[in-house]
């Protein structure tokens, strides 16, 4: 029986890392385990609602500065955080430490390794990220969100176990909602881009809607995330076109908004792809460019190959290209329905439970 075992989760930086950690925490609690969180000092400020009995903060940094001094300072903070993490881990004595990628997880996972505690890292993307790549050699187990993950050595691949990407309880709540086949009626279009994508969505999507015919525009109802400085501009374009639209800088109920939509335009972060597939909604995905790993491009390719999405690389995302894709989808509502089914078939709704079981098995193997 696993009851009483203590699991330390290491996550921070962005929601993309914290969401799956939060989902795992709920699953572990349901199985009778105790959970604590270790994060970086920056993320600790908004981790107050995280489902854990304690939150421990240690220094961390991303060694991506351009100057040698910036990189040296980042490495100093990582080293400082690693020794702080090792000290805390020796005091708290978790049975296993689970890292969720990003540099805030490097000190906890390294500290656990130095303290002789078993470690598991979860890679959400279809290409392993730099922090997890750095940790992969030391980790005892590598859990993956995708069946195939690029960037791993054969030795590291042997440590891999495919579990899927855990999704928030709010996603599971709406995952049973059937896809509302649009037929000849309205098509509800949801557009969001996150903190690094809302500007291009604000620039391109309204311009694409302008290029549609009056009859095509009449079919659309739009819900779009736009940064505060773009909100009025985007709303004004839709008002002028006579398109019913709801524009806001942030949607607290994004999973419910996904479930209510017939088509989604979004970035292709691992959490977004997981949520789209678990809920089962067709999407036009625009990977965030500029990443050294091109992880979002690989994530989008997975859902495109499954038949649940259309991938458009950002250099190809012009108003004309997007208008062409929208026009074809509006004319083929049955294709939207099949895309929704394909996306759903690629989803792993019990990923949090699968990961929890793997964590428990890893904890037992340390006995």
Can you put this structure into words, describing what you see?
The chain has a seven-stranded parallel beta sheet, sandwiched between helices. The chain has a six-stranded parallel beta sheet with strand order 10-9-8-11-12-13, with helices on both faces. The protein is an alpha/beta fold and 367 residues long. It has two domains: 178 residues, Rossmann fold (3-Layer(aba) Sandwich), CATH 3.40.50.2000; 174 residues, Glycogen Phosphorylase B (Rossmann fold, 3-Layer(aba) Sandwich). Strand 2, helix 2 and strand 3 form a beta-alpha-beta unit.
Task: Give the gist of this structure.
The protein has 367 residues and is of the alpha/beta class.
Q: Largest beta sheet, briefly?
A: 7 strands, parallel
Strand order of the largest sheet: 3-2-1-4-5-6-7
Structural class determined from secondary elements: alpha/beta
Low-confidence stretches: none
User: What's the CATH class label of the largest domain?
Assistant: Alpha Beta
What general outline do the C-alpha atoms trace?
Answer: elongated
Tally of strands: 13
Number of helical segments with 4 or more residues? 16
Mean pLDDT, as a whole number? 92
Kindly state the percentage of residues in helix.
Answer: 40-55%
CATH topology of the largest domain, what is it called?
Answer: Rossmann fold
Q: What key phrases describe this protein's structure?
A:
alpha/beta, Rossmann fold, six-stranded parallel β-sheet, 367 residues, seven-stranded parallel β-sheet, 2 domains
């Amino acid at each position: 029986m696993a009851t009483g075992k203590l699991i330390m989760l290491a996550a921070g930086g962005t929601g993309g890392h914290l969401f799956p950690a939060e989902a795992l925490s709920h699953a572990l609690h349901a199985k009778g385990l105790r959970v604590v969180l270790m994060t970086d000092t920056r993320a600790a400020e908004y981790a107050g609602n995280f489902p854990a009995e304690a939150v421990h903060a240690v220094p961390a940094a991303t060694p991506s500065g351009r100057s040698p001094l910036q990189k040296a300072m980042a490495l100093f903070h990582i080293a400082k955080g690693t020794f702080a993490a090792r000290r805390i881990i020796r005091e708290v004595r978790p049975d296993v430490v689970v890292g969720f990628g990003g540099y805030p997880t490097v000190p906890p996972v390294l500290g656990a390794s130095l303290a002789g505690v078993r470690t598991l890292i979860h890679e959400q993307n279809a290409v392993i990220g730099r922090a997890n790549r750095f940790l992969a050699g030391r980790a005892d187990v590598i859990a993956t969100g995708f069946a195939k993950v690029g960037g791993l050595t054969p030795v590291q691949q042997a440590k891999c176990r495919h579990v899927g990407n855990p999704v928030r309880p709010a996603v599971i709540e709406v995952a049973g909602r059937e896809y509302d086949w649009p037929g000849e009626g309205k098509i509800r279009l949801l557009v969001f881009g996150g903190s690094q994508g809302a500007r291009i969505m604000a620039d391109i999507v309204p311009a694409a809607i302008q290029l549609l015919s009056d009859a095509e525009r009449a079919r659309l109802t739009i819900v779009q995330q736009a940064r505060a400085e773009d909100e009025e501009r985007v709303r004004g374009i839709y008002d002028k076109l006579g398109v019913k639209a709801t524009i806001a800088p942030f949607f607290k109920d994004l999973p419910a908004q996904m479930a209510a939509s017939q088509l989604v335009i979004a970035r292709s972060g691992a959490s977004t792809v997981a949520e789209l597939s678990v809920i089962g909604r067709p999407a036009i995905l625009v990977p965030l460019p500029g990443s050294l790993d091109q992880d979002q491009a690989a994530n989008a390719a997975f859902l495109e190959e499954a038949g649940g999405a259309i991938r458009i690389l950002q250099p190809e995302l012009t108003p004309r290209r997007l208008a062409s894709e929208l026009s074809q989808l509006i004319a083929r509502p049955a294709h939207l329905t099949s895309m929704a089914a394909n996306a759903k078939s690629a989803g792993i709704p019990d990923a949090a439970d699968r990961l929890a079981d793997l964590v428990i098995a890893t904890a037992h193997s340390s006995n």
